[in-house]
């Protein structure tokens, strides 16, 4: 009877208490015994912790004057708490860019070396992404698209890198965190139309796909590009018809209630002045039947 109660207590601690603790506290419990150390490092516990621990943090870019960063606790029932920490890796002034984040991990890009890195701001762990013959193109700041996603089929994190050449052609690559390798994949047909003079937005991940927008340098011709992480294929999605009626527009993708939304700032000249409106469009339907509707 005592053994059953002891086993039940241990099971309750491992499945109900530990998954609710912040990551900082978990490191101390790895010293309790070998069983706990193994359990806390397992993929099973990582998935359980992600499902139970819903704390939200906002990470700001490293300071211009020093290699530091700020994190904000954004939970609604707390007052925002700011934490200032040192960056654990060597970084020069204005050199690091925070390109994407997922499950507490951050993809960092460096302007000078054009290298990419995985970084966990809570634990301080980081790892530079390797290069290979399939990924000869270095990351170009403000020009390339970088997407971060979790491959649930192979249980690993992956990076999508779409590289634009000066000629206007585009090459796409995928990095596997588990294999530590890159592979080349096919981008859209006739990609030359997405020239270097067009603006590519940051990449957003939702419901098994990555999304980003492409538009002309003068604010015209807004297009949404999707990437299915399972089939590893790209598709072009037309922007909402209402966004085409303006003279100048800017679009950004956001996730609201697990759905992709396009935030469009549109402008037209009336009475010799620019007049701007802000609309939020929700994308409905699945691949092959995408439809846009004004939100709410």
From TrEMBL:
SUPFAM superfamilies: F-box domain, Galactose oxidase, central domain. Residues 9-49 form the F-box domain. Pfam families: F-box (PF00646), FBA_1 (PF07734). Gene3D superfamilies: 1.20.1280.50. This is F-box domain-containing protein. It comes from Artemisia annua (Sweet wormwood).
């Amino acid at each position: 009877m005592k053994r059953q109660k002891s086993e039940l207590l241990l099971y309750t601690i491992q499945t109900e208490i530990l998954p609710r603790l912040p990551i900082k506290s978990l490191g101390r419990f790895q010293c309790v015994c070998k069983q706990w150390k193994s359990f806390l490092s397992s993929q099973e516990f990582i998935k359980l912790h992600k499902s139970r621990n819903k704390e939200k943090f906002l990470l700001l870019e490293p300071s211009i004057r020093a290699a530091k960063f700020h994190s904000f606790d954004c939970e609604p029932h707390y007052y925002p708490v700011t934490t200032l920490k040192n960056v654990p890796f060597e970084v020069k002034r204005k050199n690091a860019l925070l390109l994407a984040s997922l499950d507490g991990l951050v993809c960092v890009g460096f302007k000078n070396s054009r290298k990419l890195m995985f970084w966990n701001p809570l634990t301080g762990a980081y790892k530079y992404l390797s290069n290979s013959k399939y990924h000869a193109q270095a990351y170009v700041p403000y020009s390339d698209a970088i997407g971060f996603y979790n491959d649930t089929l192979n249980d690993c994190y992956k990076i999508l890198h779409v590289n634009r050449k000066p000629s206007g052609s585009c090459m796409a690559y995928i990095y596997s965190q588990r294999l530590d390798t890159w592979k080349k994949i096919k981008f859209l047909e006739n990609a030359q139309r997405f020239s270097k003079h067009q603006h590519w937005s940051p990449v957003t991940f939702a419901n098994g796909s990555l999304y980003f927008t492409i538009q002309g340098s003068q604010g015209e011709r807004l297009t949404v590009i999707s990437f299915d992480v399972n089939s590893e294929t790209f598709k072009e999605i037309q922007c909402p018809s209402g966004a085409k009626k303006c003279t100048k527009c800017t679009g950004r993708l956001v996730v609201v209630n697990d759905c992709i939304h396009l935030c469009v700032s549109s402008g037209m000249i009336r009475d010799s002045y620019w007049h701007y409106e802000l609309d939020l469009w929700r994308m409905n339907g699945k691949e092959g039947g995408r439809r846009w509707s004004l939100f709410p």
